[in-house]
Amino acid sequence: VQGDEFILPKDLKQLVESVVFMAEGQVDLDKRVEIIVEKDKIICKAEKSVGEIKDSVESESEKEFHFFVNPFFMSQVLEKATTMVATENLAYFKSGDFEHIISLPAE
């Protein structure tokens, strides 16, 4: 996969886990958070009817994009992945033999 490749911040998994309490959903499988990648940071945002929470961690990316993902699933991906490659339509997570792809929303 060719695209904007960058090292995932070590604190990203902790960041995702820290906002999950504010993610809307009846059960864990229904919950989702928004991951927003900007040139100098990655923002993790969760919201429900009573409000929202967002926090960020420094990062370096040439491409700006966002996607929604289940926070528990994302935490498992970040347990293994150390690098991410972003293209126009996907986020490719990798580390050694581990690979995972998330489809990005069309603009």
Automatic annotation (TrEMBL):
Q: What is this protein called?
A: DNA polymerase III beta sliding clamp C-terminal domain-containing protein
